[in-house]
Amino acid sequence: MKKKYFGTDGIRGTVNIGDINGEKFFKFGLAVGTYFKNLKKKKQVAIIAKDTRLSGYTLEPALVSGLASAGMHIFTLGPLPTNGLAMLTKKMKANMGIMITASHNPYYDNGLKLFGPDGLKLSDKIEKKIEQLIDSKTTNHLSDPQTLGRVKRLEDGNDIYLNILRKNFPKNFSLKGIKIVIDCANGAGYKSAPKILSDLGAKVISIGTNPNGLNINYKCGSTHPEVIKKYVKKYKADLGIALDGDADRVIMCDEKSLIIDGDQIIAMIAKRWKKKKILKGGVVGTLMSNYGLEKFFSNEKIKFIRSNVGDRYVKEQMRKNNFNLGGEQSGHIILGKFATTGDGLLVALEVLFALRKGKSANEIFKVYNSVPQKLINIKVKDKNIINSYKCKRAIKTANILIKDKGRLLVRSSGTEPKIRIMCESHNYSLINKCINIIKKTIH
């Protein structure tokens, strides 16, 4: 059965349109609180963090009200990276963690990412059970007046998160002498990212650290890596780091102003971890991972598995196969040795740890040659157009054309009203031809 509210990464949409409004967030809170309360744990605690969207101020109180009405006690943390929430959920032994965010989407979108007591995103099975509770009668789940939840604000969430990150590296880890450009996308990492880099001794040039509720991801962050490229060149920095709105993604730029995507970062870490005998089992990528990455792992004799798109599915495959590294080209990278979900800042620190011995970013990222890849996103009113006869016929025609010469992937976005077409081949004209065949049909 198809899910009604949850997509590939939680619940997401445009604020005050559809399901992203105060009334619905009350029901989300009531349903999630009821589900976890019914697991009959002694301690009924939920913790909530958010990114910097203006709509967070309207959605968070509604969510809190729903949770408290279900009898859950709530700690609110304010702006905090998504993995910071996951780490604190586990550390505080809470029943659940809820991140109010729409990740890399524009300011007018918002949503939820849910984590269980183990710091892991919820399974499809649990999400379907929560959806049933959302649509059930509200009065069936309201607590008695004497058992309502209490709400408390925690002011030191970012400090606790940064202390956990620091403990993953040796005490003598220093970034002294390294110049870094950090773009926080005016999002959830705007406090924590510059602080830890500065505390470690780096010279930090910070951008995207002045959120106003409306400028999150706007011409900045991991979806606009051209910004760090420009600043790295301007300040002659050793590395550029771009996070997204909830700081679970990272895209980088080396000292020569060359953009480093998630696939290249994964390849570098995998190679380093294999050499250090840290790599466990192999690596999980996605259907979007570059074919050049797959060939690289084959040559290195590193097992490589593709999952569906979405870091939750990457993590599921990592757990199933007992791997400790996986991620997406978009910069969602899970370092299973340290974390349960993607963390752009943690990944950046792991890369910087490899740079501390005087190596250049350009040098350590020269790992494999990408196969030329083109990705286009087509905004649609109905994502089901991908299942129409004409669209299926166009995809079949394009697949016949590119067979044995490259790879084609057409899918609907799990988080936005878009159809994504990805094609890769060393033949550029063939890439454009295949994409145009499908693009015309969708338009």
What topology emerges from the helices and strands here?
Blueprint: E1 11-14, H1 22-37, E2 45-50, H2 56-69, E3 73-79, H3 82-91, E4 96-100, E5 109-115, H4 124-134, E6 151-153, H5 157-166, E7 179-183, H6 192-199, E8 203-207, H7 226-235, E9 239-243, E10 250-254, E11 259-260, H8 262-275, E12 282-286, H9 291-299, E13 303-307, H10 311-321, E14 325-327, E15 333-335, H11 344-355, H12 361-364, E16 373-379, H13 389-402, E17 406-412, E18 418-425, H14 428-442
Parallel strand pairs: 2-3, 2-4, 3-6, 7-8, 7-9, 12-13, 12-14
Antiparallel strand pairs: 1-5, 4-5, 9-10, 10-11, 14-15, 16-18, 17-18
Task: Explain the overall architecture.
This protein is α/β, with parallel strands linked by helices and 443 residues long. It folds into 4 domains: 11-158, Alpha-D-Glucose-1,6-Bisphosphate, subunit A, domain 3 (Alpha-D-Glucose-1,6-Bisphosphate, Chain A, domain 3), CATH 3.40.120; 175-258, 3-Layer(aba) Sandwich (Alpha-D-Glucose-1,6-Bisphosphate, Chain A, domain 3); 261-370, Alpha-D-Glucose-1,6-Bisphosphate, subunit A, domain 3 (Alpha-D-Glucose-1,6-Bisphosphate, Chain A, domain 3, 3-Layer(aba) Sandwich); 373-442, Alpha-D-phosphohexomutase, C-terminal domain (TATA-Binding Protein), CATH 3.30.310. It is 36% helix and 21% strand. The strands form 4 sheets. It has a 6-stranded mixed beta sheet with strand order 1-5-4-2-3-6, sandwiched between helices. Strands 8-7-9-10-11 form a 5-stranded mixed beta sheet, with helices on both faces. Strand 17 and strand 18 form a beta hairpin. Helix 1 runs parallel beside helix 2 (56-69) and helix 3 crosses helix 5 (157-166). The two termini are 29 Å apart.
